[in-house]
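Weekly modeling sync, notes
Attendees: S.R. (lead), two postdocs, one rotation student

Agenda item 3: backlog of single-chain predictions. S.R. asked that every request posted to the team notebook include the full sequence so nobody has to chase files. The rotation student volunteered to paste the first one in as an example of the format we agreed on. Action items at the bottom.

Example entry:
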Amino acid sequence: MAPVLYVGMVDEPIDVPALIARVSGSSIGAISLFLGTVRDVNDGRAVTGIEYSAYRTMAVQELRTIASEVYLASPGLQLAIEHRLGVLQVTDVSVAIVASHARRTPALDATRAIIEALKKRVPIWKLEHYADGERAWVDPTGSSALR
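Predicted structure, as returned to the notebook:
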């Protein structure tokens, strides 16, 4: 199986089956999938949607750096990652991380490592839209609730 390290920023809904297909193969024994979705409440406020924006070139570069760090630390790992930009509604997928490996532990560890680093390092901004009509920028690393 050829090595896979795919990172993308998209403006349309994320095609999760296509990402899974990128990292699938006969030598793969485990596929770990993380989907980040827009939830209807954040810090006690009713949310109707989120607008994600980014300096795309910088965000893709940093996400690729993170993916490369995780990829190089685990020989045999395959990765496909996409983050969506634009206005998303509640339940929409905002980020998909698919990691595969011959064994489950590297695949599972990779998805967690990537999402944690993404939240801290990738310059993606989140403007929450609330049910009361207000909007506010949210720090993805600063919520009082567990992520």
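Discussion: group reviewed the output briefly. The first strand starts at residue 5 and ends at 10.
Action items: rotation student to repeat for the remaining queue; S.R. to check formatting next week.
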